């Protein structure tokens, strides 16, 4: 095994200096767990239009350790199957598994506030690095980790064993939790979900904590931290911004095809009160997902070079098309049973009237049949999602 002790100590020192690492137990874990083992057989580096494969066997030790102990997220799989050792050169593809940047990993585990003896369920094993850190802190028998991709799960299990952690690694849909090992004191998700599944609430002890990134867009998502109650509900707040790959069972296919055909028949047309490009900012994007949970935001350019923006909700067969006017304003055309922009714009106006509070002002209440989000006590900033 490559000796990376110096790199591990340096990583721990950097994370402590930056405030991501605060506890002695976490520092000891970072200094003990060799991240390079969890990147095998290799990674893909983003070169703009292509991904360049870098393997441990094809790279000198200093370069490989430099990558492993960088503060970057490192992509380990493309398109649900391709790993770096099976790519002959730069390739196109969509990342489907990665080793999240160490600051985010460590910060989330610290935020989980797991105590000695706690049973922890991790959703999204990925490379297995975060599971290894938790095993070092809590003991390998107290960590259960679930991964939906059998190949990814197999590599993670091998890496955990190689690092000396024989924990509970499970292949399955993490959105269903893992009832066999329940109840848990803590649940942590290293993927994003549209909402916290009630299965996790049901499998968590009263007083237990669930930590999960909420949202289906690539940005505009937040880290929810909720506490389970004796009555089977859960309540909490958003700890801040967070970004992870979507849980595969909830992954959204991008809207494609002829967009002009999709928006040919509008039921209404009016001037926008709010510039729709606000949806390219984090908090407005988050609010849009609360107001219209199934909506997707799409940017395009018309044949004459005119900038176009869209909201599509395929499940509710509704759309909003935004066309930039010559005076700097925007016009919205809406079609389908739901006036998407009316719903979203109402939330954006109310949010601005409230002083544009940050994502940490949002609270969430979860029952078996509903998710309710609220900012302060403002009725216009309350969104109730009925499940099913």
What brief labels describe this structure?
388 residues; alpha+beta; Rossmann fold; Double Stranded RNA Binding Domain; 10-stranded mixed sheet; 10 helices; globular
Short description:
The chain folds into two domains: 215 residues, Vaccinia Virus protein VP39 (Rossmann fold, 3-Layer(aba) Sandwich), CATH 3.40.50.150; 100 residues, Double Stranded RNA Binding Domain (2-Layer Sandwich), CATH 3.30.160. Helix content is 25%, strand content 30%. The strands form four sheets. It has a ten-stranded mixed beta sheet with strand order 7-6-5-8-9-10-11-17-18-19, with helices on both faces. A five-stranded antiparallel beta sheet has the order 12-16-15-14-13, with no helix packed on it.
What is the SS-derived class? alpha+beta
- Tell me the number of structural domains: 2
The helicity comes to: 25-40%
| CATH architecture annotation name of the largest domain | 3-Layer(aba) Sandwich
Describe it for me?
The protein is α+β, with helices and mostly antiparallel strands. It has two domains: 5-75 and 98-241, Vaccinia Virus protein VP39 (Rossmann fold, 3-Layer(aba) Sandwich), CATH 3.40.50.150; 253-352, Double Stranded RNA Binding Domain (2-Layer Sandwich). 25% of the residues lie in helices and 30% in strands. The protein has a ten-stranded mixed sheet with strand order 7-6-5-8-9-10-11-17-18-19, with helices on both faces. A five-stranded antiparallel sheet has the order 12-16-15-14-13, with no helix packed on it. A two-stranded antiparallel sheet has the order 1-2. A hairpin with a 3-residue loop joins strand 17 and strand 18. It starts with a helix and ends with a strand. 45% of the residues are buried.
